[in-house]
């Protein structure tokens, strides 16, 4: 997707903006009743996203213009590229004992993000973000039924 708009700093130039954003998301769950009142619930999800955003300073013939001077125009041509990958897995084991419910779960979350900025002043920056979350092995959860009169 892209469009052109008049440049705010010059009446004869245009800003050409472009955006590309392919992404995918997948999710799968599995639920199983085990013996003696035990239940198993598992889930896995994956997300991949790539965003490319660009801006160019163009003339009336839609040709890209590169300025070194004045310095304010030099920063009008740039590209931002961002890539993200996210994965999450979860396992829950549930046991009903009389009127009580006991749950034990484990979750894994992985995130990886890369961002790049390119412009005509030969400035290239790269940002890398990684998050890996390893929670405790088992977290018990207790549920007590409430009976209202």
Describe the structure.
This protein is mainly β and 149 residues long. 3% of the residues lie in helices and 66% in strands. It contains 1 helix and 8 strands; from the N terminus they run ββββαββββ. It has one helix at 71-74, and strands at 2-6, 14-20, 23-33, 38-58, 78-97, 100-119, 124-133, 139-143. Strands 1, 2, 3, 4, 5, 6, 7 and 8 form an 8-stranded antiparallel β-sheet that branches. A hairpin with a 2-residue loop joins strand 5 (78-97) and strand 6. The model is unreliable at 131-139 (pLDDT under 50).
Which ranges are low-confidence, i.e. pLDDT below 50, for 5 or more consecutive residues?
Answer: 131-139
Query: Which class of secondary structure composition applies to the elements?
Result: mainly beta
The number of strands is: 8
Q: β content, as a range?
A: over 45%
Helix proportion range: under 10%
Number of helices: 1
Radius of gyration: 26 Å
Ends apart, CA distance between termini: 60 Å
- What can be said about the biggest beta sheet? 8 strands, antiparallel
Shape: rod-shaped
- The succession of helices and strands, N to C, reads EEEEHEEEE
Average pLDDT works out at 78
């Amino acid at each position: 997707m892209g469009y052109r708009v008049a440049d705010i700093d010059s009446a004869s130039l245009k800003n050409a903006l472009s955006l590309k954003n392919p992404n995918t998301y997948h999710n799968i769950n599995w639920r199983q009743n085990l013996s003696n009142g035990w239940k198993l619930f598992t889930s896995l999800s994956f997300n991949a996203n790539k965003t490319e955003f660009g801006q160019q300073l163009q003339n009336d013939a839609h040709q890209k213009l590169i300025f070194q001077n004045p310095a304010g125009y030099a920063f009008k041509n740039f590209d931002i590229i961002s890539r993200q990958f996210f994965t999450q897995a979860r396992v829950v084991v549930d046991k009903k004992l009389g009127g009580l419910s006991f749950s034990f779960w484990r979750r894994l979350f992985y995130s990886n993000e890369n961002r790049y900025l390119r412009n005509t002043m030969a400035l290239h920056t790269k940002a890398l973000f990684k998050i890996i979350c390893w929670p405790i092995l088992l977290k018990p959860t207790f549920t007590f039924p409430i009976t209202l009169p």
